[in-house]
Every structure is written in structure tokens, then in C-alpha cells.
Design a protein that fits this description.
By secondary structure, the chain is an alpha/beta fold. The chain has six helices and four strands; from the N terminus they run βαβαβαβααα. It has one domain: HAD superfamily/HAD-like (Rossmann fold, 3-Layer(aba) Sandwich).
């Protein structure tokens, strides 16, 4: 699986353009995923130039290197890579709907192959009648 990973807010806390504090277990989890040999990690970040180099160095000093950076393949030129969508199977990003889960949860989702589960709550007629969104989008009769 190809996994795209954000940097700020995902691997480190938000302090852009500085490097924030490492989020607990982020790098250890990514290294474990990488060592298992089934997945390719791509760093997918808005950082460019000096700030990008600092982020890469931060990760490298901790033993984490990425298959590619802001591109699908290492040999892609940066000016072309950022202009198009990345072909990844999974994106790990703090701006996810629902936010960033704990890194232990992220690891379990990836290792089990169950990265997303559909909603399994009670959608009986009584429950759906109480739904805020059902009321909000209900047509006026």
C-alpha cells in the first residue's frame, strides 16, 4: 500500500515554519510500518525549499526516510509533482475528517487492513428522526 503522510500536525506539532515537537509514537510507528516491508511511505507536505529540507533532516536523524517526497516516485521533479494529485492508497493527515487518531490506532488500522469501517450505528426510523442533519435538510411540506 502507498501511504502519504503529512508532516506538520501529523508527525510534529504545528509550529510552521519551525519544526514542532514530535507527536508521541509518530516516527516509531512509521518506522515499524516501513520495516514490515509491505508499504511505501511518501512525505506529503506543503513545506518547500529550506523548510522541506529541515523536515526531511528531522526525520532522517530519527531513522525515518521516505520512498518519495511530494511525488509518486523519487525521480519525479518537484515542480511537476506538486501540481497534481498524489496516487496514494491512504493519507495520514491531521486535517482528516475526524482529526488524527492516536498513532497506535493508526498502526492497528494499517496492519489489520481495516483503515475505514462504515458507520454501524442505529439508523432505525426513531434514530433517523432525531438526526440534526435529517431535520436540517428535510424539505418543508
Amino acid at each position: 500500500m502507498i501511504i502519504a503522510v503529512d508532516f506538520d500536525g501529523t508527525i510534529v506539532t504545528h509550529e510552521y515554519p519551525k519544526i514542532g515537537k514530535e507527536i508521541p509514537f509518530a516516527i516509531a510507528t512509521l518506522k515499524k510500518i516501513q520495516q514490515e516491508g509491505r508499504h511505501q511511505l511518501i512525505l506529503w507536505t506543503v513545506r518547500q525549499g529550506k523548510e522541506l529540507e529541515e523536515a526531511l533532516e528531522f526525520c532522517k536523524k530519527r531513522g525515518l526516510e521516505f520512498y518519495a517526497v511530494n511525488s509518486n516516485f523519487p525521480e519525479e521533479q518537484e515542480e511537476h509533482a506538486c501540481a497534481r494529485k498524489l496516487a496514494a492508497d491512504l493519507f495520514i493527515d491531521d486535517r482528516n475528517l475526524g482529526g488524527l487518531p492516536d498513532w497506535g490506532v493508526i498502526y492497528q488500522m494499517i496492519s489489520s487492513g481495516k483503515a475505514w469501517e462504515p458507520y454501524s450505528g442505529d439508523m432505525s426510523e426513531d434514530a433517523s428522526q432525531k438526526s440534526f442533519f435529517r431535520k436540517l435538510f428535510q424539505s418543508n411540506k
